[in-house]
C-alpha cells in the first residue's frame, strides 16, 4: 500500500531534521518538518496534485499536431528502412544458398546438416546493434563440465 | 537564437491548388506559417488570456522542420498524382478509369491531409469547408462516422424504421433536417418528438455527399408507417412528401423552398403535415433519401401515386432507387394539431379510445 506518509518516508529517508529532538528515536515516525508537508498534502485534493493540463491556443495545437505527425512519420520511415535492409540480407542469404546448391550439392548438404547435441551457447552475449563498453572479459573462465552449478 | 522560417513550397503555391486549401483569415494564416506567434495567440479572445499565454518551449524550433518534412512528402505525392493524370488521359476502359480516379482521389487526400492550414480548417472551420476538395470531404466523413452516423443508425433501428419501411440501410450521406418554424437554425436530432406547430411547414434538408458528386439526382420520401387502419386492425404507411430529380452537388447540398421553387417539377407529391390522432401515441415520420441512376420515369406523376396505403418497398424497387441516407422524427397529438388540420383543409380528427372499436 502506498500512502502519502509511506511515500514521503521513503523519499526523504536521507533527509536529516534541522532541529534535533532529544529522547526521540528518528525511526519512530517522520520529523516535524516532514509531518507538516504530509499534513498539507493530505488536505489538498487529488485534482490539485495532478500536473496542470497543457492549454494550447488553436494555432499552437495545430503546430503540435504537425510536429507529432512528422515525428511518427520519421520513425515509421526509419523502421521501414531497417526492415527492408533485413529483407535484402535474407534474400541474398537465400540466393547464396541456392547458388551453393547448384555448384556443389554435397557442400550444401554439409552446410545444412543437423548438428545433434550442439546447443545454443547460453553464455553468448545477446546480439546488439553496437559493441559493448567492455569488449572482452579477460578474467573469464568457462564452466567446468560436471560442476554443481550446471 | 532565431528559429528558421517555415518553408514556402508546394503548400504555399496556389497555381494548381485550390485557394480553399489555405486559411482565410490573414493573421491566423500568418500565425500558422510562422515558427512562433508573431502577433500573439489570436484565437484566444480575452486579453488576459492573451497576455499570460506562452507557447510550449522549443515548438518554434521544431515546427519548421516538421513542416518541411511533411511538405516534401506531399510534393512527392503530387508528382505521383501528375503521373496518374497522364495515365487517365490515355486510358479509355471505363472500369480502369474509375479505378485510376479513385487512386487519384486517395493520393490527393494523402497529399493535403497533414497540411497545417487544411487541418486547422477541418478542425475549427467545419461549417465553411469547400466540399469539392477531397481532403475536406475526408475529414467531414471521419467526423460523421465518429458520431452522427452511429446515432442515426441507432435511432432508425430502435424506432424500427428499419425494417418497418425499408429492409436496411448502408448510410453514404449525412442527412440533416430542419423546419422553418422560427428563425433559429436548429438541426433536428434523429428521433426527436416535434410539436405540430414545428412540423406544420415543409422541412429543409441538407444532404452532404462524401464522394465527388456533380449534378447527381436524388429522391426524397417522407413516410409515416403508423397510420391506423381500423378495418384491418393494423397500421398502414402514408406518403407525406415526395420529391424527385433533385439536383445536388458537393457545394450545393441544400434542399429548401428556394430550390424547390426554381424547379417545381421536382415536387412529386405536396407536403402533408403530421396530424396524429388523439390517444394514438407517437407516430414515426421516416425521411428516406435515394440516389437515382438517371431521371425518374415520366409515367410517375402526382396522379399515379396514392398517398394512403403507400408501398414504399414496391416504389423503390420499381424505380431502381438506392437508399443512401435516412432521418426520423416523431409527432404526437397536441393542442395545435386541430389548427394545422384547419390550415391545410383536412377533415376533423378522430379520437381513439382504449377499447377495441
TrEMBL record, chain A:
<comment type="similarity">
    <text>Belongs to the mitochondrion-specific ribosomal protein mL40 family.</text>
</comment>
<dbReference type="GO" id="GO:0005840">
    <property type="term" value="C:ribosome"/>
</dbReference>
<dbReference type="GO" id="GO:0005739">
    <property type="term" value="C:mitochondrion"/>
</dbReference>
<dbReference type="InterPro" id="IPR042831">
    <property type="entry name" value="Ribosomal_mL40_fung"/>
</dbReference>
<keyword id="KW-0689">Ribosomal protein</keyword>
<protein>
    <recommendedName>
        <fullName>Large ribosomal subunit protein mL40</fullName>
    </recommendedName>
</protein>
<dbReference type="GO" id="GO:0003735">
    <property type="term" value="F:structural constituent of ribosome"/>
</dbReference>
<keyword id="KW-0687">Ribonucleoprotein</keyword>
<dbReference type="GO" id="GO:0032543">
    <property type="term" value="P:mitochondrial translation"/>
</dbReference>
<dbReference type="InterPro" id="IPR019192">
    <property type="entry name" value="Ribosomal_mL40"/>
</dbReference>
<keyword id="KW-0496">Mitochondrion</keyword>
<dbReference type="GO" id="GO:1990904">
    <property type="term" value="C:ribonucleoprotein complex"/>
</dbReference>
<keyword id="KW-0809">Transit peptide</keyword>
<dbReference type="Pfam" id="PF09812">
    <property type="entry name" value="MRP-L28"/>
</dbReference>
UniProtKB/TrEMBL annotation, chain B:
<dbReference type="InterPro" id="IPR008914">
    <property type="entry name" value="PEBP"/>
</dbReference>
<dbReference type="InterPro" id="IPR035810">
    <property type="entry name" value="PEBP_euk"/>
</dbReference>
<dbReference type="InterPro" id="IPR036610">
    <property type="entry name" value="PEBP-like_sf"/>
</dbReference>
<dbReference type="GO" id="GO:0005739">
    <property type="term" value="C:mitochondrion"/>
</dbReference>
<feature type="coiled-coil region">
    <location>
        <begin position="67"/>
        <end position="94"/>
    </location>
</feature>
<protein>
    <recommendedName>
        <fullName>Large ribosomal subunit protein mL38</fullName>
    </recommendedName>
</protein>
<keyword id="KW-0496">Mitochondrion</keyword>
<dbReference type="Pfam" id="PF01161">
    <property type="entry name" value="PBP"/>
</dbReference>
<keyword id="KW-0175">Coiled coil</keyword>
<comment type="similarity">
    <text>Belongs to the phosphatidylethanolamine-binding protein family. Mitochondrion-specific ribosomal protein mL38 subfamily.</text>
</comment>
<comment type="function">
    <text>Component of the mitochondrial ribosome (mitoribosome), a dedicated translation machinery responsible for the synthesis of mitochondrial genome-encoded proteins, including at least some of the essential transmembrane subunits of the mitochondrial respiratory chain. The mitoribosomes are attached to the mitochondrial inner membrane and translation products are cotranslationally integrated into the membrane.</text>
</comment>
Amino acid at each position: 500500500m502506498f500512502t502519502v506518509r509511506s511515500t514521503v518516508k521513503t523519499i526523504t529517508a536521507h533527509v536529516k531534521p534541522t532541529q534535533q529532538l532529544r529522547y526521540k528515536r528518528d525511526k519512530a515516525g517522520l520529523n516535524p518538518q516532514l509531518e507538516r508537508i504530509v499534513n498539507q498534502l493530505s488536505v489538498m485534493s487529488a485534482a490539485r496534485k495532478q500536473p496542470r493540463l497543457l492549454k494550447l491556443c488553436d494555432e499552437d495545437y495545430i503546430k503540435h499536431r504537425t510536429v507529432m505527425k512528422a515525428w511518427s512519420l520519421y520513425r515509421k520511415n526509419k523502421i521501414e528502412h531497417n526492415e527492408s535492409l533485413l529483407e535484402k540480407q535474407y534474400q541474398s542469404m537465400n540466393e547464396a544458398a541456392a547458388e551453393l546448391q547448384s555448384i556443389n550439392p554435397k557442400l550444401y548438404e554439409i552446410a545444412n546438416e543437423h548438428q545433434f547435441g550442439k546447443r545454443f551457447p547460453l553464455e553468448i552475449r545477446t546480439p546488439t546493434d553496437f559493441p559493448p563498453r567492455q569488449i572482452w572479459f579477460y578474467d573469464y573462465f568457462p564452466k567446468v563440465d560436471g560442476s554443481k552449478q550446471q | 537564437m532565431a528559429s528558421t522560417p517555415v518553408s514556402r513550397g508546394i503548400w504555399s503555391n496556389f497555381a494548381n491548388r485550390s485557394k480553399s486549401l489555405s486559411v482565410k483569415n490573414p493573421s491566423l494564416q500568418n500565425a500558422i506559417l510562422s515558427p512562433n506567434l508573431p502577433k500573439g495567440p489570436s484565437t484566444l479572445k480575452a486579453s488576459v488570456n492573451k497576455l499570460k499565454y506562452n507557447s510550449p518551449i522549443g515548438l518554434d524550433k521544431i515546427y519548421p522542420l516538421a513542416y518541411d518534412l511533411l511538405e516534401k512528402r506531399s510534393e512527392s505525392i503530387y508528382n505521383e498524382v501528375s503521373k496518374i493524370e497522364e495515365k487517365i488521359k490515355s486510358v479509355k476502359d471505363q472500369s480502369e478509369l474509375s479505378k485510376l480516379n479513385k487512386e487519384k482521389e486517395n493520393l490527393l487526400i494523402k497529399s493535403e491531409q497533414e497540411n497545417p492550414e487544411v487541418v486547422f480548417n477541418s478542425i475549427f472551420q467545419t461549417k465553411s469547408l469547400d466540399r469539392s476538395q477531397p481532403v475536406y470531404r475526408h475529414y467531414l466523413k471521419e467526423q460523421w462516422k465518429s458520431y452522427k452516423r452511429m446515432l442515426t443508425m441507432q435511432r432508425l433501428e430502435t424506432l424500427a424504421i428499419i425494417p418497418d419501411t425499408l429492409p436496411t440501410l448502408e448510410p453514404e450521406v449525412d442527412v440533416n433536417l430542419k423546419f422553418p418554424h422560427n428563425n433559429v437554425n436548429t438541426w433536428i436530432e434523429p428521433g426527436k418528438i416535434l410539436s405540430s406547430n414545428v412540423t406544420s411547414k415543409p422541412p429543409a434538408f441538407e444532404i452532404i455527399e462524401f464522394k465527388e458528386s456533380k449534378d447527381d439526382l436524388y429522391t426524397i420520401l417522407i413516410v409515416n408507417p403508423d397510420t391506423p387502419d381500423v378495418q384491418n386492425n393494423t397500421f398502414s404507411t402514408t406518403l407525406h412528401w415526395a420529391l424527385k430529380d433533385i439536383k445536388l452537388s458537393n457545394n450545393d447540398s441544400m434542399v429548401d423552398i428556394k430550390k424547390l421553387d426554381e424547379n417545381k417539377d421536382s415536387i412529386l407529391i405536396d407536403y402533408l403535415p403530421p396530424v396524429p390522432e388523439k390517444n394514438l401515441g407517437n407516430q414515426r415520420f421516416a425521411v428516406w433519401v435515394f440516389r437515382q441512376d438517371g431521371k425518374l420515369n415520366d409515367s410517375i406523376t402526382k396522379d399515379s401515386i396514392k398517398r394512403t396505403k403507400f408501398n414504399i418497398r414496391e416504389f423503390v424497387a420499381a424505380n431502381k432507387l438506392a437508399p443512401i441516407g435516412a432521418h426520423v422524427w416523431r409527432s404526437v397529438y397536441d393542442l395545435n394539431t386541430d389548427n394545422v388540420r384547419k390550415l391545410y383543409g383536412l377533415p376533423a380528427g378522430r379520437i381513439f379510445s382504449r377499447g377495441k372499436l
